[in-house]
From TrEMBL:
The gene is Manea. It is found in: Golgi apparatus membrane. Its main location: Golgi. It catalyses: N-{alpha-Glc-(1->3)-alpha-Man-(1->2)-alpha-Man-(1->2)-alpha-Man-(1->3)-[alpha-Man-(1->2)-alpha-Man-(1->3)-[alpha-Man-(1->2)-alpha-Man-(1->6)]-alpha-Man-(1->6)]-beta-Man-(1->4)-beta-GlcNAc-(1->4)-beta-GlcNAc}-L-asparaginyl-[protein] + H2O = alpha-D-glucosyl-(1->3)-D-mannopyranose + N(4)-{alpha-D-Man-(1->2)-alpha-D-Man-(1->3)-[alpha-D-Man-(1->2)-alpha-D-Man-(1->3)-[alpha-D-Man-(1->2)-alpha-D-Man-(1->6)]-alpha-D-Man-(1->6)]-beta-D-Man-(1->4)-beta-D-GlaNAc-(1->4)-beta-D-GlcNAc}-L-asparaginyl-[protein] (N-glucan mannose isomer 8A1,2,3B1,2). It is a single-pass type II membrane protein. This is Glycoprotein endo-alpha-1,2-mannosidase. It comes from Hylia prasina (green hylia).
């Protein structure tokens, strides 16, 4: 009987140990899968459908043109009102700025962060904008029929998988803008890459936002941050319209103390423009604008600048060089989604850029999830793994010793790439993701950590 009891206990213990070992192996495999996705992700149709060759994402707001024309006379008044509200708010809070400067880490002007001002709510805009984002159908009707349609219904139901600590805010709210600046500064980022459309134009789900730029610049200056522009793929974007729009930005905003200029290796101080979906336009058109001999050349004029193209596929690096761009960035926060966003390709891209006198600006992100607006796209979801995904991306970026690192994003809530503060929230039918077990500011703290690490390592690189 004693031997039987001993054997039974031994078998029981062995089974428990074996079960725990299997669970451990499974958890390791899941973590590795999340951190190191398949390299073939870009070839998958889920990935390709997000790119504009198959789905045009921006339109001129033709349907709003009549109302815009009617409101043209009020534009100056509206901008003036926005600006005066912001100035009054800033005056009221200027006294603690010196103390704030002592508490916050110094801004790192080599950390650039993508920022969106396209959100609206009834209090400031008369309606919800972007929080009520429609559910985008799959391009294959057979697949589309398997997923819900319609649009979100804020404030409880928003077009995001996470919920902002500030709620369904308006980008025009001065208290929101200030809170954003304070968060970005607390993370030791230095340059805001502001999503921008020409006056009177916007993405297909939004409203024009150019009149917010002066307010953003003022608040950025208060926190010693700089602002550069992320030029979106507006309708009929070409060499001629780009020349006029770059001229407009520099003439209108270039004298502001928060307007970003980058010091080049030759000592020149030049504005910088990120050009989203640059590959949609053929290299010959870009060359007209960006090469010295081009018919619309902006080179060696008062409007010369550094132009940074989006690299998606490997072949784009040759097009970017031929076009006359000054560098490339990768934008997407999904490791494995595109050639450019795959961490294991950054070393070869950096080597290509070094050999062709181009800047390589890798984009790091905390994770990715857009199933609130693309319910069929869970293939491209990247779990945050409580911050480990973000740190893996930073680690990969530092390995290639880039001059600048870009962060996707501060507040692109639709795609779940935000590092802005998020809070747990549960409504009738929706349970939002959150940053637990960490606090709402965990991704700001991680950004600060890696900003300081980058500074220390960069000192060694320069030695």
């Amino acid at each position: 009987i004693l031997n039987y009891d001993i054997m039974a206990r031994f078998r029981r213990r062995t089974c428990i140990i074996l079960l725990l070992f299997i669970l451990f192996i499974c958890s390791i495999m899941m973590a590795l899968k999340t951190l190191r996705p398949d390299r073939a992700g870009f070839g998958d149709p889920f990935g390709l459908g997000l790119l504009p060759e198959l789905q045009q994402r921006t339109v001129l707001l033709d349907s709003k043109q009549n109302s815009l024309n009617k409101a043209q006379g009020d534009t100056v008044t509206r901008v003036s009102n926005l600006h005066s509200i912001a100035v009054n708010t800033m005056k009221a809070s200027m006294s603690p700025v010196k103390k704030l400067e002592e508490e916050l880490s110094s801004p790192n002007y080599n950390f650039h962060i993508f920022y969106y001002t396209w959100y609206g709510n009834p209090q400031f805009d008369g309606k919800y904008i972007h929080w009520n984002h429609p559910l985008l159908p799959h391009w294959d009707p057979k697949i589309a029929n398997n997923y819900p349609k319609g649009r979100h219904n804020p404030p409880e139901d928003i077009g995001a998988n996470f919920y902002p600590e500030l709620g369904s805010y308006s980008s025009k709210d001065p208290t929101v803008i200030e809170a954003h600046m304070k968060q970005m500064r607390s993370a030791s980022t230095g340059v805001i890459v502001l999503s921008w459309y020409p006056p009177g134009m916007a993405d297909e789900n939004g409203e024009p936002t150019d009149d917010l730029v002066p307010v953003v610049l003022d608040y950025a200056h208060k926190y010693n941050l700089k602002v550069t522009f992320h030029i979106e793929p507006y309708k009929d974007r070409d060499d001629r319209s780009m020349y006029h729009n770059v001229k407009y930005i520099i003439d209108r905003y270039g004298s502001h103390p928060a307007f970003y200029r980058h010091k080049t290796s030759t000592g020149r101080l030049l504005p910088m423009f990120y050009v989203y979906d640059s590959y949609v336009t053929i290299p010959e058109i870009w060359a007209n604008l960006l090469t010295v001999s081009g018919s619309q050349s902006i080179r060696n004029t008062p409007y010369d600048a550094l132009f940074i193209a989006l690299l998606v596929e490997e072949r784009h690096k040759h097009d970017i060089h031929r076009s006359g761009f000054d560098g490339m960035y990768t934008y997407f926060a999904t490791n494995g989604f595109s050639y450019g966003s795959s961490h294991h390709n950054w070393a070869s891209l950096k080597a290509f850029c070094d050999s062709n006198n181009l800047m390589f600006i890798p984009s790091v992100g905390p994770g990715y999830i857009d199933t609130s607006i693309r319910p069929w796209n869970n293939h491209n979801t990247r779990n945050r793994v409580n911050g480990k995904y973000y740190e893996t991306a930073f680690s990969a970026a530092l390995l290639v010793r880039p001059e600048i690192i870009s962060i996707t994003s501060f507040n692109e809530w639709h795609e779940g790439t935000q590092i802005e503060k998020a809070v747990p929230k549960r409504t009738g039918q929706v349970v939002y993701l959150d940053y637990k077990p960490h606090k709402p500011n965990v991704y700001l703290e991680l950004t600060l950590k890696w900003s300081e690490k980058y500074r220390k390592e960069q000192e060694q690189w320069l030695m």
